[in-house]
Amino acid sequence: MKKNPQTELIHAPRKAPQYISTVQPPLFRASTIIFENTNALFDRHWTDDYDYSYGTHGTPTTFTLGDQIAQIEGGLHHLLAPSGLSAINLVNSCFLSHGDEVWVADNIYGPNMEHLRNLEKRYGIVVQVYNPIDVDTFTPSINAKLIWLEAAGSVTLEFPDLIGLVQKAQAHNMLTALDNTWGAGLAFNAFDFGIEHLSVDISVHALTKYPSGGGDILMGSVVTRDKKLHHKLFRTHAIQGISISGDDAAQVQRSLASMRLRYEHQSQSALQLLQWLKQQTAFVQVLHPADESSAGHTYWKDICTEQHSAGLVSVVFDPKYDVQDIRSFCDALKLFKLGFSWGGPVSLVMLYNLKDMRVLEHSHIKAGLLVRFCIGLEHPADLIQDIENALQHLNKRSLK
Predict the structure, then answer these.
(1) Pairing of strands 337-338, 348-352
(2) Beta bridge partners of 146
(3) Three-state SS string across 73-103, please?
(4) Helix (H) / strand (E) containing 59
């Protein structure tokens, strides 16, 4: 039967062969997925490793990316989310109920703390804060359900006593969730580190950073090795309608081949800046886990290497400089751009007031306003010159 041209356009009688071998895998964009027959529709199950049922559950494009992220991190099962924070929220909403106690490091990623405080206020979970470099401040009760770990910590970059914290959490039958964005699955294996092959239960990763590498894609991942945990997370993932764009997944997948090279390059550039920054009198403290004077350096040294120390360095300014001075310093930078995030080609700078961010007292952080440098792919000599020029501007300002 001859069909109307409009129908012929939708149900094309002739199609090019679907599969060829290419450097990059084919890109699948899908909401609806077509089933070959009713057996294919009803014989499938959501626990299948590759359940092609609807676009939110996965396509070859998203599963390929997820498999690669799991491989990089040393895990077996993966879920993708539209941002790192979305991935964090997935873990919290999946495992925390009324009365559950969750422990968070005092240097945790700020939006995670904000989300947990919101859950505490609305749903009655109990948020407890610990010092990441002092395992004795982690004192879980019988209601303790989950501990959030972050290595290194947000902004102040302390490397936690990861071994001690995980061992203690396991002794109390708590779930361990690591924000692994800084390490990117490259600095250490979250599922096999330290002594006796220690492992966290869940690794969360903001793929926005190093895996994307372009400063233009938002995405997160949740990786586990335990299938039961994965299935619990997957059900929450599905119920909440969490999904990502196939185009975004293809972009991140394309960047993975160069991720280790970029990470190591930015780590080495950060180490060069670290040595120069320590010589500048405007700073009373330079924070980087690879530096012997930084809190948690010994813990970092136990499981990481220098080429895997990420491209972040923070500095604490002499207290004689006020907030307007530091804002003027940041505005004077030309190569470092004001902006959040890291891992992209452009170096970034951001200023912080720790008094507004911390719950506990930390004697290892000196008084003064803090600036974090996120190192991009520029030559480190040019970045040093940019900071030097901004310091000269700052000193001229302070003399007025």
Answers:
(1) parallel
(2) 102, 175
(3) HCCCEEEEECCHHHHHHHHHHHHCCCCCEEE
(4) none
Query: Do 222 and 78 contact (CB within 8 A), yes or no?
Result: yes
Predicted confidence (pLDDT) per residue in 341-388, tens digit: 999 999 999 999 888 778 777 778 898 999 999 999 999 999 999 999
- Cβ proximity of 134 and 105 under 8 Å: no
- 135, 172 contact by CB (below 8 A): no
CB atoms within 10 A of CB 126: 18
- Residues 28 and 60: beta-carbon distance below 8 Å: yes
CA distance 11 to 141: 62
Tokens (6 digits) for 177: 């969730």
CA dist 347 and 312 (Å) reads 10
Strands of 240-308 (E only): list them.
283-287
Positive or negative: CA dihedral 335, 262, 61, 241: negative
Interatomic CA distance for residues 289 and 292, integer angstroms = 8
Cα separation of 395 and 154, whole Å?
A: 28
- Do residues 205 and 220 lie in contact, with contact meaning Cβ atoms separated by under 8 Å? yes
Candidates 244, 284, 307, 266; CA nearest to 370 is 284
What φ, ψ does residue 150 adopt, rounded to 5°?
-145, 125
CA distances from 325 to 127, 132, 399 (A): 36, 31, 11
Alpha-carbon distances, residue 187 vs 72, 235, 306, 327 (angstroms): 11, 30, 9, 32
Q: Is 371 helix (H, G, I), strand (E, B) or coil?
A: strand
pLDDT-derived band at 20 (thresholds 50, 70, 90) equals confident
Answer yes or no: is pLDDT of 48 > 90.
Answer: no
Which amino acid, residue 280? Q
Q: State the Rg of the chain over Cα.
A: 23
Select from 213, 212, 210 the least CA-distant residue to 187: 210
pTM comes to: 0.92
Q: What are the tens digits of pLDDT across the range 207-241? A: 999 999 999 999 999 999 999 999 999 999 999 99
How far is C-alpha 184 from the chain's CA centre?
Answer: 7
Please write down the long-range contacts of 36-42, taking CB distance under 8 Å and 24 or more positions apart. Answer: none
Q: Max Cα separation, the chain?
A: 88
> Residue 103 has which token pair?
């422990």
